[in-house]
Amino acid sequence: MKAWRFYGFRDLRLDEVPMPVLRPRHVLAQVLVVQPSVTEAQLAAGVRTLAYDKIKQRLETEAPVQLFGHEFCVRIVELGEGVTRFKVGDRVAARAKLPCEACPLCESGRGHLCRKGPIIGFQLPGCFCEYAVLPEIALTLVDDRISDNEAACLQSLSDSVASVETAELKIGNSVAILGQGSMGLECLQVARVSGAGRIITVDVRDEACAMSLELGADYAINATREDPVAAIRALTQGNGADIVFECAGGSPTQGLAGVKSVTQAVDAVRSGGKIVGVSWFGSPFELDVDLLRERSLRYVFPDISTLEHLQHTVNLVASGRVRMKPTITHVLDGIENVAQAFEITANKGKYKAINPAQVRIAI
Length: 363
Ligand SMILES: [Zn+2]
What we know:
The chain is an alpha/beta fold and 363 residues long. It is 30% helix and 22% strand. It has two domains: 2-153 and 328-360, Alpha-Beta Complex (Quinone Oxidoreductase, Chain A, domain 1), CATH 3.90.180; 159-300, Rossmann fold, CATH 3.40.50.720.
């Protein structure tokens, strides 16, 4: 079969490789649609972010290696021994993080909290290929009302569901969301259907602000023209928002806000309010913790997303409560276009992309 393999950072090639071998409690699946996550696209380009050192080591010791590809929709073509929840022909999406099935958490029935297991696309081969062997324990059935393209967004959406759950928002809470990339737009929609009151979003791109308004933001602030902190304060009786999702931080070379968005989040949240840190920064930074202490701020980070979160995304998208379709701006046909999808996803501003660029593999 054909598979993309990484020979180093910025060096991915389409190779002919053997079909993966089916194992017990796994399925063999044909890849329908796959997209690089923003983190994967940054890592492929050699940008220092989440898991950079681990990927660097794998490239240095194992290249060429099949990396990335945990955001996908696949169709099951063969069942491994012991698979009970699925049948041949089912379309499925996956939770990327697997339980290790050996630690005390896993052995006490709390494997959804385990951090020791492998991650699809990082320690296990992902889906930038024609066929993949995937563990049953990671999979959820895709509802017929969800297209292949929408289904490829469910994994990312499940992380946003976990982020909103972590916020513990109460009905009517004001919410500000810094950054309207894919996770910012997802947090917007999930917060909206989870009881948020006034929702104020911030981005530096007009197309992201327009998308944000289309998907239910009450106000979308373009931070290149207006001070976002002043605007959020003005829209919350001068108090600041009850909850701020910080989804803008990260490498400025990819068009992200560096660490400035954290300072803005601190200034834009009300005293006693909550900042949910969704971004990855790739390196440590300084923060005036006394200021957080003085104002009783909660700077919290999203819980790990579980299979239940992923199953909830199926309900959200199938029922139309969360809309992924408008955010899918770039779809490429054919496995040979994967490298271009990485390029677009790593430079979404340049290509005016909202969601990562998708590739339809089975055509
Ligand atoms: Zn475990």
